[in-house]
């Protein structure tokens, strides 16, 4: 497997789809733990319980593997965020916190900045593009909140409130000592924005 830029991943088919997902999940764990430069294809194969040659059949290069992995991470993160924000019968503050928890995952202690740089190089998606996509999900949830929310009373938009929460999350990920610490601090931030 090389670090070439031109080879594409072999498209999934039938039974191979489950194996492909297992490879992408293993690659995501390796990428978030080590960053792209130190990510080992051998470690991905070990985690996915597949031979290196079997991995080649799905992804002929390291770039092809991690391009697909970044797309997978973005899709699952967006889907998890959307699911958490739309959960019926759950208070808005709790839904927002669940969405941030879903996005935090392993990324708190990961090489997230390098992953975002790699995403831009491999997929052409900039960090700003990704952030806009996430902020749009939160904006939609906030637009459906009560009229008495603090941001509404102050004449702010749902988008500005979502942007503040997202920026707060990014800052807290850098200073929090653990995922529980990050979530405790995010709960406070969400209360400031959402509690009437």
Structure write-up:
This protein has 196 residues and is mostly helical. The chain has ten helices and no strands. The protein has helices at 16-38, 41-48, 52-58, 62-85, 92-104, 112-123, 127-143, 150-153, 158-175, 179-194. It is elongated, with a radius of gyration of 19 Å. The model is unreliable at 1-15 (pLDDT under 50).
Tag the structure with descriptive keywords.
196 residues, mainly alpha, 72% helix, 0% strand
Structure summarized in a few sentences:
This protein has 196 residues and is mainly α. It has helices at residues 16-38, 41-48, 52-58, 62-85, 92-104, 112-123, 127-143, 150-153, 158-175, 179-194. 72% of the residues lie in helices and 0% in strands.
């Amino acid at each position: 497997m090389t670090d070439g830029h031109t080879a594409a991943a072999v498209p999934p088919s039938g039974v191979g789809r489950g194996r492909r997902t297992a490879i992408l999940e293993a690659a995501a764990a390796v990428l978030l733990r080590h960053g792209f430069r130190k990510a080992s294809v051998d470690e991905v194969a070990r985690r996915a319980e597949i031979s290196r040659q079997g991995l080649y059949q799905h992804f002929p290069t390291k770039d092809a593997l991690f391009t697909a992995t970044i797309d997978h991470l973005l899709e699952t993160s967006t889907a998890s965020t959307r699911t958490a924000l739309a959960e019926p019968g759950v208070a808005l503050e709790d839904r927002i916190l669940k969405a941030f928890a879903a996005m935090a995952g392993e990324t708190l202690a990961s090489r997230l900045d390098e992953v975002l740089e790699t995403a831009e190089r491999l997929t052409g998606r900039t960090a700003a593009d990704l952030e806009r996509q996430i902020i749009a999900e939160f904006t939609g949830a906030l637009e459906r909140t009560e009229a008495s929310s603090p941001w509404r009373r102050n004449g702010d938009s749902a988008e500005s409130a979502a942007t503040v929460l997202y920026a707060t999350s990014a800052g807290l990920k850098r200073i929090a000592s653990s995922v529980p610490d990050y979530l405790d601090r995010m709960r406070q931030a969400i209360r400031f924005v959402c509690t009437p």
